[in-house]
Design a protein that fits this description.
about 260 residues; Rossmann fold; seven-stranded parallel sheet; 7 strands; about 35% helix
Length: about 260
């Protein structure tokens, strides 16, 4: 059965009013609606339906790859790059479910702290809650909410469990797979899944030994491979350009314009 018998806060009871607040870009309303959708509350579902007619087209970019590849650091720097262009940035970071609370094991407070005081960046951690494929059950809905709220660039970071994280391709327009030198067998496994649907592959920590060999190997599989050192901000200009080129190639306005 959909929905819940729990009392809903008075400012969220009216789905029409909640939808209007989201369309006005009100951050608290955006956060509230995403929570309602995670919990499958009827008022949240009704508010989401009210957004359909007003949804704006954002650049939606998936960042996926193995744990430890530096996905969050990369997104942190990309968010900074797009903010310098005046873009509003939304980030949906999918995390492992906490066994104690049922929520995301890694919360917003420990991610991308430099953006916490920036009204132009919205960061939301979502727990998988048993959902497979690298995303949470409400990830797609969260993206729709952020689009309606006027966020122009939206990042979806997968949980980071390996080559089976293919659901992201159904939610985003551009898939960026992040690898690091020395993964060896893991990269070979990714060729059978994750890399087949990636539009751009990033070799992060590209100052490590083996980076050149990784680049050469991956260029045989993917049209666009970019070397980065996310902790130093190296290669970010090239990555932003690669994302813009892919967005233009599929008929969308470039995210860097």
């Amino acid at each position: 059965m959909c929905g819940s018998s729990r009392p809903i806060a008075s400012d969220a009871v009216d789905a029409v009013a909640l939808a209007e607040r989201v369309k006005a870009g009100e951050v608290r309303a955006v956060s509230r609606l995403i929570t309602l959708l995670e919990n499958r509350e009827l008022v949240g579902i009704a508010a989401l339906q009210r957004l359909d007619a007003s949804t704006r087209r954002a650049a939606v970019i998936g960042i996926t790859g193995y744990p430890g590849a530096g996905k969050s650091t990369l997104i942190d720097h990309l968010a900074t790059a797009y903010r310098r262009q005046g873009k509003r940035v939304g980030i949906v970071a999918v995390d492992v479910t906490s066994p104690r609370t049922g929520g995301a094991l890694l919360g917003d407070r420990v991610r991308m702290q430099d953006h916490s005081v920036d009204d132009g960046v919205f960061i939301r951690s979502m727990a998988t809650r048993g959902h497979h494929g690298g995303l949470a059950g409400a990830t797609r809905d969260a993206v729709r909410v952020l689009e309606a709220a006027g966020y122009e660039v939206i990042f979806v970071e997968t949980v980071g469990v390996g080559q089976a994280e293919v659901d992201v391709a159904d939610v985003v327009q551009t898939v960026v797979a992040v690898v690091v030198p020395g993964l060896g067998d893991e990269v070979q496994a990714m060729k059978a899944g994750l890399l087949e649907m990636a539009h751009i592959v990033v070799v992060n920590k590209g100052d490590r030994e083996g980076a050149d060999a990784a680049l050469r190997d991956l260029q045989e599989w993917v049209a666009r491979v970019v070397r980065t050192v996310a902790t130093k901000g190296e290669g970010l200009v090239e990555l932003v350009e690669a994302i813009a080129e892919h967005q233009q190639a599929i008929g969308l306005p470039a995210a860097d314009r």
